[in-house]
Amino acid sequence: MLTFRQLEEKVRQRIHGEFKERISLQTECDLFIRCALVGNHVRIIPSKAGTVNSVAFAAIVALLRELDAVCEPALMSLTRTTWINHELVTGQSPYIGDLVRALESITEAIVPLVESKKYLRNFFDKASR
Fold this sequence. Notes:
- By secondary structure, this protein is mainly α.
- It is built from five helices and two strands; from the N terminus they run ααββααα.
- A hairpin with a 2-residue loop joins β1 and β2.
């Protein structure tokens, strides 16, 4: 899987010398990153300044929404538990396994795709709140 910068460099390697500096996929990269998957449709996130930080922030917000949606069933199960009937800890509750599987599925999907560890750290910091 190539990043936009890697693809841009590969194209530059194959182009005649005088045209190399004209090759830029930045517009396409910005448009692609501004698209965030929400459910089964694509929503365009408006770009205020077109900066990397605003794009990264929008991507993190979209990932947090996905994390919230995946964890929702397990959290609803937690809130429906009748705690008054529990006197002792007898083992792991069923919703804990569901919650762990949901968290693992999201992190396994995200971690290999994030190039910069600072964005990954930002995502996990926000998710833990």
